[in-house]
Amino acid sequence: MRALLIVLDSVGVGGAPDAAAYGDQGADTLGHILEQNPDLRLPALESLGLGRVVSIANRSEFGSDAYRASYGKMQEQSAGKDTTTGHWELAGAVLQKPFTVMEKFPDELVRPIEKDAGIRFIGNYACSGTQILDQLGSEHLRTGNPILYTSADSVLQIAAHEGVVPIERLYAICEIARRYADAYRIGRVIARPFEGEAGNFRRTTRRHDFSIRPPRTVLDAIAAAGQPVVGVGKIKDIFAGRGITESYPTTSNAHGMYEIEKLWAEKPNGLIFANLVDFDMIYGHRRDVRGYGNALMEFDGWFAQFVRSIAPDDLVIITADHGNDPTFHGSDHTRERVPLFVMHQRRSRNLGIRSTYADVAASLGAFFKLPEPWPVGTSFFG
Question: Are residues 76 and 113 in the same domain?
């Protein structure tokens, strides 16, 4: 029993019925990228049923009756539109109460972190990750004080130049912050190391997420049944290590795809759970429509080769965790439905619009023949 779950981070497909409540009515990440990149072709995803998931004007080549996968969409039941919430729901944990989002962190939270870590922060306001370096990077170099900031997600982010604050020291500060952030129900504390000089600051690949600990998920149940649960990318971080038996951090989509391919060849059984983060981190938040399109094309080209290694008895699921429409206003995630492609036994059918991402968890539970069916969601195989 071998399964692969790939999360294309932020590749939403619009249409969330509650998008307006999040200020995201009209957002459609994948649809708008295809619309604005008329030369973009994704033949591997089209062969899975992409044309039944998105509808693009003047794309008559989308629409064949012979697909390699079952296809559909999922809408999020949990409150929120962040990475942690989306991944937890995919794993079968639906959150009725969203994580806390702040414009500024209160002194009651900040001062104990500073005291225990022996530091003083600068910043402490909502800002994009690139803009905060332009605004406060020079002051950080001059004072040595780490930069504290947040965004529209439930995140407490701490940025520091690797030449000023060694990476292990930054991680230690974030571990202290994580302990205090739990009481405020903040989803993630994120270490944001950077390098360079004024006018040319660059974030490095040694970002590390310190997530709040999740409730029990299907990952715990699969691991308890004796199956490996292998995280690729930031999966271990998102689940605070819970339910993950092995972890392979990555520095890019290309690195993630390399690790998936390598592990798939090595692992005869168990679950490989991978997150490809570049779509969101590099292109979505920076509103880079063309770059996002190119990243999709690179994944599609890789998957066209990888698909040859998928046996009929394997289970492969491709989906996303939220949207991040690069044509939309602002620079934050967007509340959207997500695509769903399921490869197993060479079957192809319309899975429709699923009412929760937790259908993935229920399906994994059924596939791995867990002693008890996963209690949240409906299996694709039912």
Answer: no
Tokens of 224: 């308890």
pLDDT single digits (tens) 125-165: 999 888 999 999 999 999 999 999 998 789 999 999 999 99
Domain membership of residue 379 (yes or no) is no
Say if residue 152 is exposed, middle or buried (CB neighbours under 10 Å; 0-12, 13-18, 19+): middle
CATH number at residue 120: 3.30.70.1250
Spatial separation of the C-alpha atoms in residues 370 and 361, rounded to whole Å: 11
pLDDT of 57 above 90: no
Q: Phi first, then psi: what are they for 58, rounded to 5°?
A: 60, 30
CA distance 380 to 369: 14
Domain that holds residue 303: 2-97+212-367
Residues 230-272 have pLDDT tens digits of 999 999 999 999 999 999 999 999 999 999 999 999 999 999 9
Q: Which three-class secondary structure string do you get for 31-65?
A: HHHHHHCCCCCCHHHHHHCHHHCCCCCCCCCCCCC
Q: What's the whole-model pTM score?
A: 0.90
Positive or negative: CA dihedral 295, 301, 304, 308: negative
- Which pLDDT score is estimated for 152? 78
Residue 169 shares a structural domain with residue 309: no
Measured CA to CA, the distance from residue 181 to residue 174 in angstroms comes to 10
Examine the domain organization and report whether 346 and 216 are in the same domain: yes
Task: Quote the number of domains for the chain.
Answer: 2
Picking from 98, 90, 153, 160, the residue whose alpha carbon sits closest to that of residue 123 is 160
CA 22/CA 354 separation, integer angstroms = 20
Q: Is residue 355 part of a domain?
A: yes
Tell me, what CATH number does 10's domain have?
A: 3.40.720.10
**Helix residue ranges per DSSP H, 232-279:** 235-238, 253-266, 278
